[in-house]
Amino acid sequence: MNEMNEINRMNEMNESALVGSIQRFSTEDGPGIRTTVFLKGCPLSCAWCHNPELVSPAQQLMVSPARCINCGACVSACPNSLIRLEEGFPRIDREACGLCLRCARECYAKAIRPVAREMTVKEAVSVVVQDKRFYDNTGGGLTVSGGDVLLHTAFVRNLITDCAAQGVKSCIDTSGYGSFDDLLSLTNAEGAEAVLYDIKLIDDDMHRHYTGVGNDLILNNLTRLVAEKPAHVKILARLPLIKDVNDSPTMAERAAKLLASLGIRAATLLPYHTLGVSKAKNAGEMAYTRTFAPPEPEKITALLEIYRGQGIETDVLGAENSRN
Fold first, then answer.
1. CA distance to 27, 140, 148, 170, per residue, from 36 (Å)
2. Domain range for residue 299?
3. Based on the structure, what is the number of domains in the chain?
4. Are 82 and 230 found together in one domain?
5. Does a structural domain hold residue 203?
6. pLDDT of 323 higher than 50
7. What percent of the chain is modeled with pLDDT above 70?
8. Contact, 144 vs 39, CB < 8 A?
9. What is the Cα gyration radius of the chain?
10. Of 274, 262, 204, 203, residue with least CA distance to 236
11. Statement to judge: residues 66 and 206 lie in one domain
12. Cα gap 195→216, rounded to integer Å
C-alpha cells in the first residue's frame, strides 16, 4: 500500500489522476444514463478481474495487434531500441521501457497507446457535464469507478463536488478496501447519491486466495458506512458471480443475510465475462493462470431468488456486458 499511498499524496497536491477511460451513456453503473470515469489503481488483484489494465496505479502501454499496420513508426520512435516488429505487430521490452510514450505518440493506427491519461478535475468535469440533459431526463449522473476511488480520494471528492456545482449527482464504485474516513468523506461530498459497494466473496479465506486481501476491512467498512452515511445516500451492493468460486447457494445465502441484516435492499449480480483476458495480455500483464466462467443461467436464476427471498431488490447484468 506504500506506493498507492504515495500516489494518493501526489493527487492531493495536483488534483489530477490517471484516467483509464471515460464511458458515456453507461446504463450499468447506477441509476439512469451515466458517464463513468474509470481511474487507474486498485488495492485488490482479483483473479477474474474485468479491468486488469487498471489494477496497477502506474502508467502502462497497451498493445493492440489487430490495429497494427506494420509501418515501423514505433520502432523508429523508441530512443532505446526497445521495440521490434514480430509476426506483424510490435513487441516491447517492458522491463527496460521507461514509458516515455514516444512510440504511442507516433503510432498512427493506435496499435500502441497509453492505458491511461492524466487528467485534472476540471478536464474530467468538462466531459461529464456534456450529457447533463440526459442525466436530468433519466435520473442519471456521474459514476466514478476504477480501479478504486479510495486510491484517489482528493481527486474524486473534488470531481464530485465540482459536478454537483453543475447540477450533476454522483455515485462512487468501490471495493471498500481502504480508509473508512476517506470512504465517508466521499459519501458525504456534495452531490453524492449512491455507493456501489463491491462484495467479491463473503468467505475471508477465499477472498484472500482470489483477490490477494482478506475481507474483514471491506465488511467492517460496509457496516460502519451503513451506520454513518448521510440518510439520502443509498448503498447498492455489487456481487460478481464466478462459476465454482462464489456461486454456491450457501455463499449466496450468507451474502444475502448479511446485506439484509444491514438494511441494504438493492443488489446487482455480475456474471463473469472474458473481456479482461485480452486486456491483460495487451497491457503486458502475465497471462491468467486460472480459467473462469459464468454460472449457468438456471443457476443465476436460483441465486437471484435467494437474494430476493431476503427482501433485496436484485437484478442481473448480462454475462457479456457485466463488469466488476
1. 10, 11, 13, 10
2. 2-58+117-316
3. 2
4. no
5. yes
6. no
7. 91
8. yes
9. 20
10. 262
11. no
12. 19
